[in-house]
Amino acid sequence: MNAAPIHRAGHRFMLDPAGVVFWPARRTLILADLHLEKASSSAARGTLVPPYDTRATLDRLALLLRRYAPEVVIALGDSFHDDQGHARLAAEDAARLARFEAAHPAR
After folding, report:
1. Would strands 11-16 and 20-23 be described as parallel, antiparallel, or unpaired?
2. Which residue has the higher pLDDT, 48 or 25?
3. pLDDT value of position 48
4. Exposed / middle / buried, residue 107 (Cβ in 10 Å: 0-12, 13-18, 19+)
5. Quick check: 82 and 37 in contact, CB under 8 A?
6. CB distance 61 to 20 below 8 Å
7. The whole model's pTM is what?
8. What are the φ and ψ backbone dihedral angles of 9, each rounded to 5 degrees?
9. Model confidence at 16, in pLDDT bands (50, 70, 90)?
10. Residue 89 to residue 95: CA distance in whole angstroms
11. Residue range 38-90, pLDDT digits in tens
12. Residues β-bridged to residue 13
């Protein structure tokens, strides 16, 4: 599937089926609801699900970063599934997320 254009307030945005919005004029990728560490949160409450959700989400994010090559990334919220998700993040995934953040520093 391809991204679909939408025009609002004189700007063109691309609605990507992966669940992100790209704003070409500002080279900005807008995302929300990553819910990193959702599986480990469920496991802590006794519901066992495959623990690959964070890695898969980061893989999809890497693909989107390559596809759009944004200068700015705006994460609107719910990046982690719960308030302790960052503490359960595997070292490799934390390092990968840090590389993403370093490549797209806050302004």
Report:
1. antiparallel
2. 25
3. 67
4. exposed
5. yes
6. no
7. 0.81
8. 50, 40
9. very high
10. 10
11. 666 555 666 666 666 889 989 999 999 999 999 999 988 667 766 776 778 88
12. 6
Looking up tokens 């669940």 gives: 19
Which of left, alpha, beta for 82 (phi over 0: left; psi -120 to 50: alpha)?
beta
Structure tokens at 62: 């890497």
Per-residue pLDDT averaged across 85-99, rounded? 86
Q: Which residue has the tokens 């806050």?
A: 106
Cβ atoms < 10 Å from Cβ of 90: 13
Q: What angle do CA 18, 19, 24 make, to 5 degrees?
A: 90
Q: Mention every residue, 6+ apart, whose C-beta is less than 8 A from residue 48.
A: 42
Distance CA 24, CA 16 (A): 12
Query: Six-digit token pair at 67?
Result: 């596809």
Instruction: Look at residue 37 in the predicted model and tell me its pLDDT.
Output: 73
